[in-house]
Design brief:
With 249 residues, this protein is of the alpha/beta class. The protein has one domain: Vaccinia Virus protein VP39 (Rossmann fold). It is 39% helix and 21% strand. The protein has a seven-stranded mixed sheet with strand order 3-2-1-4-5-7-6, sandwiched between helices. It is globular, with a radius of gyration of 17 Å. Bound molecules: S-adenosylmethionine. The site of S-adenosylmethionine (SAM) has 23 residues, from helix 1.
């Protein structure tokens, strides 16, 4: 999660991060449960971040279906879902040109394009499944995004949607207003905190390697490092993390 709000500001933030910390192919806080029960390869460097992808699509069949990921970041998650669940097609879009450039390098199979979550450049009814992970808090207009996802899904399509939010910001009414049926809404804050703690050493080492103290502080704050801002907000329940399984009727 980052602290910007216009789409050009967000794109610039992520374009810069691509140069500063290119080691990450997945850019979320992750998910961990006990036991892990996972298809992510044990020992994978980005195990917990990929676990969040796996959790987000739980119980939704991707096999043989056309999948759109809005805000695919650097494409590591897209590559994992593509390899593991065999969709017919997988399209990832992101507002950051640098993220899309990295995604094309990292992941064979999915197609990646620069695009805006609030103005999806696809015809109505193009996809069977939409995936969105830890990005909607960055959009200027969440309702426009929900309306766009609803438009590009086919009837019967699934929307797998995961993000953190302020504790008093329940997006359920906006989702229903866009036309979605909420099949499941789970609060997973504890799973996210557990992931942040288990994955802390790897991320902190990369941030510490940046040198510039201001940048190190900024990335630790937004990157969920234990003791820093984003981690503290989850622990103090100022922000919560939810995952949704939604259906376009
Ligand atoms: C925290 S990252 C998560 C990326 C990816 N889902 C993952 O888990 O690795 C948030 C992503 O949202 C993208 N983003 C922010 N605003 C956007 C917008 N309006 N349209 C498309 N992508 C956007 C950013 O460029 C960034 O790649």
């Amino acid at each position: 999660m980052a602290g910007e709000s216009t789409s050009s500001g967000v794109a610039a933030y992520y374009d810069k991060a691509a140069a500063k910390v290119p080691e990450f192919t997945v850019l979320n806080y992750g998910f961990s449960s006990e036991p892990e029960n996972s298809r992510v390869p044990a020992g994978h460097a980005e195990f917990y971040c990929l676990r969040l992808y796996e959790h987000t699509v739980r119980d939704v069949d991707l096999a043989g279906r056309d999948v759109l990921e809005v805000s695919c970041g650097r494409g590591g998650g897209a590559g994992f879902l593509f390899r593991t669940f065999a969709p017919r097609s997988y399209t990832g879009i992101d507002v950051s040109g640098e993220n899309i450039r990295m995604a094309r390098r990292h992941s064979d199979g999915p197609r990646f394009e620069v695009g805006d979550a609030e103005k999806l450049g696809f015809d109505a009814g193009t996809f069977d499944v939409a995936v969105n992970i830890e990005a909607s808090h960055l959009y200027a207009d969440r309702r426009a995004f929900f309306a766009e996802v609803f438009r590009v899904l086919r009837p019967g399509g699934d929307f797998c949607y995961t993000d953190g939010c302020w504790a008093d910001d329940d997006c359920s009414d906006d989702l229903r207003a866009a036309g979605f049926v909420i099949e499941e809404r789970l609060e997973i804050t504890d799973n996210v905190i557990r992931s942040l703690e288990l994955d802390n050493e790897r991320k902190e080492k990369l941030f510490d390697g940046l040198g510039d103290p201001e940048l190190v502080r900024e990335y630790k704050d937004w990157g969920g490092i234990v003791g820093f801002r984003a981690w503290r907000r989850f622990v103090e329940r100022e922000t919560l993390y939810f995952s949704h399984r939604l259906r376009r009727p």
